[in-house]
Amino acid sequence: MAKKTKREFTPIENLRDLYSKHANTRGDKVVFRYYAKEGNIDTLTYSQFKTKTDRLAAGLDSLGLAGKRVAIIGETSPEYFITYLAVVSSGGVIIPLDKELVVDEISGFLNSSKADAIVFSRSFNKKFEAFSENANDIEYFIPMDPDTYDFGDNEKIISLQRVLELGQINLATRGYKLPENHDQEKMSIMLFTSGTTGTSKCVMLSEKNIVSAINAACTSVDFCPDDVLLSVLPIHHTYESTCMLAGLNYGVEVCINDSIKNVLKNLKLFKPTGITLVPLFLNTFYKRIWDEAKKKGKDDMLRRGIAVASVTKKVGLDISQNLFKDVVGAFGGRLKKIVCGGAALDPTLVKSFAVFGITVVEGYGITECSPLISVSPYFKQKKGSVGPSVPCCTVMIDNPTLDDDGHYIGEILVKGDNVMLGYYNNEEATKEVFTDDGWFRTGDIGYMDSDNYIYITGRKKNVIVLNNGKNVFPEELEEYLEKIDIISECVVVGRTNKETGEVVLTAVVYPAFDLLPDKDISEVAAEVKAEIAKVNKIVAGFKQIRNVEIRKTEFEKTSSRKIKRYTV
Fold it and tell me: Taking the model in full, what pTM does it have?
């Protein structure tokens, strides 16, 4: 059982309150620890964080961007948080974009969102050189680190540092006041679901949505100002951004992982007490524990240790810290809390890590709910449950039907301050996901027990959830495949590898055999795979199709000629 800590948390009313509240009380405390450009570790204090965020808000104001739409793309960094908070707190709209998008996709999302400016990390400098010259609707391109960026004579390009300097001048001017967001219920965040501009939906969130989710997260999890968090997941996801913002509300220190391949190295370096993950990481960590034990010939010793620890915990004696010193040491030696979400979690892993003295709690959410819906309580967990709904919302099961196990199962509906405003410029899609009395349809299937704990039993939507928590919308990939002449019909699905448990993106294809009259099935398959390989080159890595299945007959269809996906 996890030991309770003293939570020091007061709810915030807005995002400016979030980044300002600790500047006076713990201004000298480190808020971010991160890799600088030269590879050394740099820090930013809470006081410096507030100063920079206010300066950026004032700098954006001097450029005429206060209250406007600003996109942001890049790796997790202090500059990312500063930009996010400066834009929203001054009444603007922040548009976080996936850093794995290609330039054409970025251009499409900028156009569809009507972005006025974009802030980007160093890794996009070269990519945006040509793009910035032809993007007539973008007022400013703002590189965080312009040292590799060819400015040329493009007046649209202004460095983030220069914007900060302009803000400093504004703040020093007598009578100047920072712009504010006077309507917390208006659109403040635009988040694109995975897909091309033709298939993707844009979720509209308000500052009130995000603030309610931050406060709910702080109420529902067990952190305190002494905690050190490691940020690993992509920051454009609401899961990671909301969790990290909730951490800042507590007054924690956030350490920033520089690369997925360096997670274990950075766990040892930063020695975090808490981390937010998707199940893939947890599976990898657990497998590594056993691989290392076997490599050292200590796997039998580990099994005996687990048996002993399990018995002692039952009588209230926790000897995990000493018994599994090497195991915990691999994660930095101080890791005590893991929040896991984004995909289904194997309940046995919760128990396994608990033996090592590490508490794992599972959360459940969706972007449209900012994203938090529920969290399994630290001190009263139930196996297989994602916990009760968080304080800012209510959950109900729609049209429940009794299953063989005695559970009333139906679609999970949500209502509360965390629920989105709707989909941008898409009234039809918005109407589809809300009931007549205002409940949001999650598209997930599940049930609730007598204590209102939520259990998810399946997915209603077509979205494919990969092991790393990434969401892939099959319609997007099918849009590409349907343009290939030798493909007559296709469906993209996620097939689970029985040996590894990995979800593999698979294209099930009915070829246009009439265009390949003299070829046998193996030759047809080879040509189809060659064409799909070309598609893989123009989509993000996690969206690439890894397997192809060839059908000899057409897909089964409805009377309206729609393919019955559930039969594939």
Answer: 0.83
